[in-house]
Amino acid sequence: MFGRRKFLSFPLVIGAVIIGVASGKAIFGPPLEEYWTKKQQEEAAAKETDASSK
């Protein structure tokens, strides 16, 4: 019924990968940046707490 006789062309696959990476960065980029910034601040605060307690 929906049988494919040929593989996908290389340029089509490359184009899909580029579009996927670009849209992924656009969608998930800002929240990930915010997450890692908070995570680094928490780690820095934890190191300061450990250094001051010693």
Automatic annotation (TrEMBL):
A family per Pfam: PIGBOS1
Protein name according to UniProt: Transmembrane protein
Record organism: Rosa chinensis
